[in-house]
Amino acid sequence: MARGTMVMVGTRKGLWVARSDEAREDWQVSGPHFAMEEVYSCLVDTRGGRPRLLAGASSTWLGPQVWRSDDLGATWTDTPGGAVAFPEDVDASVERVWQLAPGTEPGVVWAGTEPGAVFRSEDGGETFALQRGLWDHPHREQWGAGFGGQAFHTVLPHPSDPASVTVAISTGGVYQTSDGGESWEPRNAGIRAEFLPEGEQFPEFGQCVHKVTRHPARPERLYLQNHGGVYRSDDHAATWTSIAAGLPSDFGFPVVVHPHDPDTLYVFPLGEGRFPPDGRARVWRSQDAGATWAELGGSEAGALPDGFFVAVVRDAMCADDHAAPGLYVGARNGTVWGSSDAGETWRCVVADLPDVMVVRAAAIDL
């Protein structure tokens, strides 16, 4: 069976699915799926046999839904009434499904929503149950919302410990459970909240964290892109250290770790105005856990664009898991670029879509 590549692109007006072979030079694109629905989260779940695609969509008329496909996007199934919903005794309603993440155990999928809550599925994403420990946390009612809403942008199940999950939300910060969601504690020591007054910029919680990631081979190490600041933790988020020196800007939304190297990570810096410094779309890579940085994307053999004055949001950059990994960047001008050599050279995967909110990719069997 041939090895191929699947890329899911969620936008403000639907989902597009792109497929290619392992070379990742030519793409077949289908869509829109769920036209006029906002798609903020996607998952290519390759656990088990045939991949299952999940998409967290939100309709103005019908509310949120987690769609699923077991035939690589040819057909889709919903859950009657919506897969993610608060129980009747909770006076709240789900507005968006910001995150879908595979759990440590077979069939387990985690979801993060707006308003700030985490849900757990045990049937591959068909139905979800609210995790009361975080919803009932005394800090939750003090979490604010960013310009784009209360973005629940990170859910990181521990790769070997089902009881451990790390989450992050704007503007609440990083929280972690070690008992399967019964209790949660803030894990923000060392993260600066630059928008607070002097002397109050390192609170217990309330940071505007934009994204957190880690590599499964080294789960105690995490990387974080903040609203001002790029950080690394080597003690499972107990403390954080700045690694922003050498970047043209410490503001941005995504942070992505190399699928085979826990010391290599990628960010997409944004300057004043929330577009790249000097309008040059560039990915920056560190191969030494943030000690030094190098600019990618300016190769004559295949470059990212100049004159680029739009943002790349928190879930619109990702990597696939091929042996020679690919990297993908989606922008708010509706274009997705792909690199089959980990960021050295780039080509357009698809263009002229609505605002790209999320990009997810994986190696699959065609």
Automatic annotation (TrEMBL):
The record ties this protein, via InterPro entries, to:
WD40/YVTN_repeat-like_dom_sf, Xyloglucanase_GH74
Spell out the PANTHER family in the cross-references. Answer: EXO-ALPHA-SIALIDASE, XYLOGLUCANASE (EUROFUNG)
For this entry, the protein name equals Exo-alpha-sialidase
Source species, please?
Answer: Nocardioides oceani
